[in-house]
Amino acid sequence: MADAALLSEQYYHGLLPREDIRLMLRTNGDFLVRTTEPVAGQPRAYVLSVMFDNTDDEKGVKHYVIQHHGMKYSIEKYSFDSIPEMITYHLSKGESLTKYAEVSIKTAVLRQPWELSHDDITVTKKLGEGAFGEVSKGTLKMKNGVVVNVAIKLAKLETLKKEQIKEIMREARLMRNFDHPNVVKCYGVAAGQEPLMVVMELVNNGSLDSYLQKANLNPTQKMELCLGAAWGIEYMHSKNVLHRDIAARNCLVGDGKIRISDFGLSREGTIYQMDPTRRVPIRWLAPETLKTAMYSQKTDVWAYGIMCWEIFSNGVEPYPGMTVAEVNMRVKEGYRMPLPDCTPPEMHPVVEQRCWADNSNDRWSMAEIAHHLERITNMPRPQVQHPAQPHRLIHHAPHGNPTLQMTQTIETHTSTPTTGGHLVPAHHPPQFIGSVKNSRKKKRKH
């Protein structure tokens, strides 16, 4: 399938999901080339995606599979030795791509800053296994030439289903909108060739639950972890994102600072209906979510309270000695875990009354919790940069040569289209995870 000449073209985006395409193609005639997502038993193909009606959000983009016969490439009318040759021809002639519809290409959309090149990434050491492949340590050469240490999720596309690849790219899409010292940073995705790589900040002390079990932290240090987590979740909520899996195992610690991580269950919106077929972390779920399968920001607040319990319990699994089924029943009946004796007195009402209130309306928001903990600890809140609105850079070749006219959409940290949406209450209870042992998700080291 490989067209070697195409890999170096800035309008080639590799494995770019359709959810990203609509964000990048804005003006009629905008186009890019990508590859199809793999389907079992079928070879992957190149696709030319073109905006032909930017007033139609649903059907405004046409996707043309590029035919490959022998050594030639074509869409319909003509055959070419390479895809770049085909693109150059259609740009210069301005002809419609097919005889059935008046669709022509005018402006190439360049790779985004988050679309990384495999050539800039070096994998040095395997750290462990993630949900969709291995996690390794490595380096990334930035655009300015600086080399930074990173954690890399690697996924071999032939081993993944289409939906799994969508999950990986959806999580990366959410992460690249985050820019906060208490949320793990995503540098971008390398999707031009295999393996698919998601490149993230390397956090040197690993997961919070393991860190708590090894480090001998005093109450002040634990309060700082609680506040850092509150800042991170507050930031996510300000971005209209529900984490849905707040737990010590899903946070990372580096240089004494906590980062919220693992956004595999995260969704945009303020209310989300749980998929009744998915396994869910019962020990961290609020009573209303156990009853109705609905998530809200107040569900994250409840889970944050459970994580605070984990922090002061040195990483012990919540509800020790209870099965998942017992936890589900007891929490809905009103049971709450007692906080460890080492928990500072001023933290008790925050967790017991403001995080674990039975009525979600009685719980504080994460912003209220964060501001309260700031007053308790006298810690200043971190400075967060607010980037400018998206803008586009238009590059014209000398004398208006249309073959080199390109557009680069500079993506900043703005919301992306909702994949979950605001949904009606669920009619199915969540799927229980059968035992204490397998209720804990496999740790992912970064």
UniProtKB/TrEMBL annotation:
<dbReference type="InterPro" id="IPR001245">
    <property type="entry name" value="Ser-Thr/Tyr_kinase_cat_dom"/>
</dbReference>
<keyword id="KW-0727">SH2 domain</keyword>
<dbReference type="Pfam" id="PF00017">
    <property type="entry name" value="SH2"/>
</dbReference>
<dbReference type="InterPro" id="IPR000980">
    <property type="entry name" value="SH2"/>
</dbReference>
<keyword id="KW-0829">Tyrosine-protein kinase</keyword>
<dbReference type="InterPro" id="IPR036860">
    <property type="entry name" value="SH2_dom_sf"/>
</dbReference>
<comment type="similarity">
    <text>Belongs to the protein kinase superfamily. Tyr protein kinase family.</text>
</comment>
<dbReference type="InterPro" id="IPR008266">
    <property type="entry name" value="Tyr_kinase_AS"/>
</dbReference>
<keyword id="KW-0067">ATP-binding</keyword>
<keyword id="KW-0547">Nucleotide-binding</keyword>
<dbReference type="Pfam" id="PF07714">
    <property type="entry name" value="PK_Tyr_Ser-Thr"/>
</dbReference>
<keyword id="KW-0808">Transferase</keyword>
<feature type="region of interest" description="Disordered">
    <location>
        <begin position="414"/>
        <end position="446"/>
    </location>
</feature>
<dbReference type="InterPro" id="IPR050198">
    <property type="entry name" value="Non-receptor_tyrosine_kinases"/>
</dbReference>
<feature type="binding site">
    <location>
        <position position="153"/>
    </location>
    <ligand>
        <name>ATP</name>
    </ligand>
</feature>
<dbReference type="InterPro" id="IPR020635">
    <property type="entry name" value="Tyr_kinase_cat_dom"/>
</dbReference>
<dbReference type="InterPro" id="IPR035849">
    <property type="entry name" value="Fes/Fps/Fer_SH2"/>
</dbReference>
<feature type="domain" description="SH2">
    <location>
        <begin position="11"/>
        <end position="114"/>
    </location>
</feature>
<protein>
    <recommendedName>
        <fullName>Tyrosine-protein kinase</fullName>
        <ecNumber>2.7.10.2</ecNumber>
    </recommendedName>
</protein>
<feature type="domain" description="Protein kinase">
    <location>
        <begin position="121"/>
        <end position="375"/>
    </location>
</feature>
<dbReference type="GO" id="GO:0004715">
    <property type="term" value="F:non-membrane spanning protein tyrosine kinase activity"/>
</dbReference>
<dbReference type="InterPro" id="IPR017441">
    <property type="entry name" value="Protein_kinase_ATP_BS"/>
</dbReference>
<dbReference type="InterPro" id="IPR011009">
    <property type="entry name" value="Kinase-like_dom_sf"/>
</dbReference>
<dbReference type="InterPro" id="IPR000719">
    <property type="entry name" value="Prot_kinase_dom"/>
</dbReference>
<keyword id="KW-0418">Kinase</keyword>
<dbReference type="GO" id="GO:0005524">
    <property type="term" value="F:ATP binding"/>
</dbReference>
